[in-house]
Amino acid sequence: MSAAVTTHDPNQPLVLREDRDGVATLTLNRPKARNALSVGLMAALQDALDAIDEDRSVRAVVLAGAGGAFCAGHDLKEMRAAPSRDLYEALFTQCSRLMLTITRIGQPVIAKVRGVATAAGCQLVATCDLAYCEEDARFATPGVNIGLFCSTPMVALTRAVGRKAAMEMLLLGDLIDAEEAERIGLVNRAVAAEQLDEVVAGVAAKIASKSPLTLATGKEAFYRQIDLDAEGAYAYAAKVMTENMMAQDAAEGIDAFLGKRTPVWCGQ
Questions:
Q1: In sequence order, what are the beta bridge partners of 120?
Q2: Do the Cβ atoms of 131 and 113 come closer than 8 Å?
Q3: 143 with 123: CB under 8 angstroms?
Q4: What angle do CA 202, 27, 32 make, to 5 degrees?
Q5: How far apart are CA 102 and CA 106, in angstroms?
Q6: Where are the beta strands (DSSP E) in 66-207?
Q7: What is the pLDDT of residue 250?
Q8: Strands, sheet with 116-118, edge to edge from the N-terminal-most edge strand
Q9: For 7, what's the count of Cα atoms within 13 Å in the CB-facing half-sphere?
Q10: What is the pLDDT of residue 255?
Q11: Which pLDDT score is estimated for 1?
C-alpha cells in the first residue's frame, strides 16, 4: 500500500502499451507513486486489457511497472481523501473486476517484477498467469500493520501459494524476498536483475508462438477446473479436449508434428 502519492503528469498515460511480435507489454506508469493503483490507473489498465482481449494479434501480455517498483498497492491518500462506504465499495469492486479480467482474457499474462509488489500489487503478481522477478524484488501483504487486513489480495494469494504460506504473509505483514517468493510459488522464478528482461521476453515469445485458440482454450479451462472436485474436473476437461480436437489448429498442429514441419496457426 502506498502513501507516497504525487500528482501524475497529465501529459503521460497511466498505462503504457508496446506491441511487438504478438506480445503486448503494459507498463504501470506512476513511478513517483511506486505505481500505486489509483482509480485512474485501474481504469486505464482495465481499458488496456479489454482492448487486448479483442485483439487477436496479441498472444501474450507482459505486465510491468515503471521506475523502481512494480506496484505498491492501493493509493491510500486517494482512499482517505473523501472516505465513504460507497467510495470503498466502488473501489474494491473495480479492483476485483480488474483482477478477474486478467484471468479471463484469452492471452496469458506475465508479471515482470522489479522492486516491491505489496498489498494489491502483490495481488496483481498472484493473479497473473506467470510471474518472474529480479533477485532484489520484495513482496508483502502488509495491511494488517495499518489495521486493514489484505482481504482482497488474499483471494489471489491463497490461489497461488499454500495456505500456511499465505496466512503467514497475511498475518505478519512482513516483506519476503524473491527467493522465498519463488519457494512458495508466488513467482515462477527469481533471476538476476540484468537477466529479467531477457527471461520474460523469452517466455513471452515462446507462448506467442503457440496457437492463440489453444492458449485461450487452455487458460479458460485451467481456471474453470481448478475449483471443481476431481470427478467434475475430469468430466469438464474431457469435453474441452473433445472440442479442442475438433479445432483446425489442433488438426494442423498434429499433422505438422507427424510431418515434422512447423505448424501454421489460423486461430480456429
A1: none
A2: yes
A3: no
A4: 135
A5: 9
A6: 109-113, 116-118, 130-134, 138-140, 176-177, 189-191
A7: 85
A8: 116-118, 138-140, 176-177
A9: 3
A10: 85
A11: 59
The pLDDT score that the predictor gives to residue 109 is 98
Residue at grid coordinates 491510500: 76
Residue 130 bridge partners (DSSP): 110
- The amino acid that residue 4 corresponds to is A
Contact status, residue 78 vs residue 8, Cβ threshold 8 Å: no
Give the start-end residues of each E strand in 98-233.
109-113, 116-118, 130-134, 138-140, 176-177, 189-191
C-alpha span between 33 and 72 (Å, rounded): 8
Say how far apart CA 213 and CA 250 lie, in whole Å.
9
Q: What is the DSSP string of 55-79?
A: -TT--EEEEEESTT-SB--BBHHHH
In this prediction, residue 5 carries a pLDDT of: 42
- Per the rule left: phi > 0, alpha: psi between -120 and 50, beta: everything else, 23 is beta
Q: Could you give the strand order of the β-sheet that contains 109-113, starting from the edge strand earlier in sequence?
A: 15-20, 23-28, 60-65, 109-113, 130-134, 189-191
Cell digits for 206?
515462446
All three cell numbers of 58, joined, read 496479441
Q: Which three cell numbers stand for residue 201?
A: 521476453
Average pLDDT for consecutive 10-residue bins of the chain (268 residues)? Answer: 53 94 98 96 98 96 97 94 93 97 98 98 98 98 96 96 97 98 98 98 97 94 93 93 89 89 88
pLDDT at 2: 56
Tell me, what's the pLDDT at 8? 53
Cα 268 to Cα 56, 217, 262, distances in angstroms: 11, 11, 17
CA-based radius of gyration for the chain: 19
Classify 219 as helix, strand or coil: helix
| 3-class SS of residue 127 | helix
The per-residue pLDDT for 4 is 42
